[in-house]
Amino acid sequence: MITSVKNPRIKEVRLLQARPKARRDAGVFVVEGIRLAEEAVAAGWRSHLCLYTSDLNERGSALLEGLRAAGTQVELVAEHVMKAASDTQSPQGLLLVVEQQTLQLPQHLQRLLVLDHLQDPGNAGTLLRTAAAAGFDAVLLTEGSVDPFSPKVLRAGMGAHFRLPVITLTSDDVVELCRLHQITLWTASAQTGESCYETDLRSALAIVIGSEAHGVGAPLQAASRKLHIPMPGGGESLNAAVAGAVLMFETVRQQTRPSP
Questions:
Q1: Hey, which end of the chain has fewer CB within 10 Å, N or C?
Q2: Residue 32 burial (CB count, 10 A)
Q3: What is the pTM of this model?
């Protein structure tokens, strides 16, 4: 049992939790809790290390057996050690260090979500979760956005990372990708542009959600059309995650309804 927070493995996990550069350099990230760990294992993502506490339930214990059989290093830790390694106030008793993968883009792209310099991890994770639920093909983040494999984004994503491609590109690369695949870029705008309910969104498209503070940057603005959500009750704008959800599911509604 690991009983010291100064143990080298614990120090490594804490570094991975705190620093995007450490995650990028090592090519790994940290998953906490049984549910997300099960998602990672079911998706076939390789785990390097598993930390667990003695109060793990039957479901968690079954997961441990599978991890051991797959060659993952499994370590029992004291509760105070798990708390030191965890990014949450109330650790769930199990933590995995998972090897990062980049899922490949489908050959045919119909629906993309683009997060342009989005900084809030809760919004980013919620948008990933919504994109997966709406059947989008991938989520593209421009450089300067929050690290999609940060602990808070992973928790809010609820396993979306293991089900759809999440790729970081430059703004210019996003524009070029859309050009090559004949995808129309639509920038979410607070009060200008076309109404999402009166615009034909049935062709291949990418919905762009911008920074909470500054909106969509110039390169994507120049290459896209503007789309807004009518708000009969007024208000300056919607939360980024809420706006993205409305636009994604309006897209799905239009693209999946029977032709007249």
A1: C
A2: 23
A3: 0.93
